[in-house]
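Dear H.,

Thanks for agreeing to be a second pair of eyes. The structure we're designing against is below in token form, covering all 167 positions.
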């Protein structure tokens, strides 16, 4: 069946922007040490048994074109102090890692310093959906830190948790 565009793209973005998300940087590394990463708000947990997570890169993402070839990715969950890293990895900067402190995850992938959590994955499958791809990752290693607040993206702006008393 043909899909008919009934929705104005700006309205679509405005309405969907009312759903708040965290922000992750999805990274990977090439055999010659090249590093790639892109900021995503579409990260989600998918399955516990087996442990699967996913995110949705734009088909035109230059970073995804490289990351997809490596067969692996590391999800870096950003803390509220990491707005600069978020903006860098959402840009088309030539070397997005320049000046961004980072080390290496157990899978050997770029792991940004001070992230709230990280998840090493093998790419389990990639499904084309509209103008995006659904990338499913099989979790190989994961960890979180206890302290810290997340970076939150909502209606085009960045926020952090206010916290509800007694919630
Ligand atoms: C808060 C936020 C969330 C984003 N979420 C996504 C996403 O889920 N999928 C995506 O493809 N791009 C997303 N982007 C845009 C990409 O980060 C950006 O287009 C990308 O880094 C462009 O560089 P590339 O061509 O090297 O991939 C998001 C950007 C921001 C600021």
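And this is the sequence the design step returned. I haven't edited it by hand at all.
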């Amino acid at each position: 069946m043909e899909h008919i565009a009934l929705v104005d793209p700006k309205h679509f973005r405005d309405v969907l922007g009312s759903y708040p998300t965290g922000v992750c940087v999805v990274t990977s590394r090439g055999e010659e040490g090249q590093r790639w990463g892109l900021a995503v708000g579409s990260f989600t947990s998918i399955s516990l048994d087996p442990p699967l997570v996913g995110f949705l890169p734009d088909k035109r993402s230059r970073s995804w074109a490289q990351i997809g070839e490596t067969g692996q990715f590391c999800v870096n969950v950003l803390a509220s102090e990491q707005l600069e890293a978020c903006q860098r990895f959402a840009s088309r900067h030539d070397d997005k890692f320049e000046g961004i402190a980072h080390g290496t995850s157990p899978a050997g992938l770029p792991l940004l310093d001070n992230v709230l959590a990280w998840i090493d994955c093998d790419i389990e499958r990639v499904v084309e959906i509209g103008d995006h791809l659904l990338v499913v990752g099989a979790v190989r290693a994961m960890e979180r830190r206890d302290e810290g607040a997340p970076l939150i993206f909502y209606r085009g702006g960045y926020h952090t948790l206010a916290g509800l008393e007694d919630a």
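Two observations from my side: The chain has one domain: 23-148. The helical segments are 9-16, 62-70, 83-89.

Warmly,
E.
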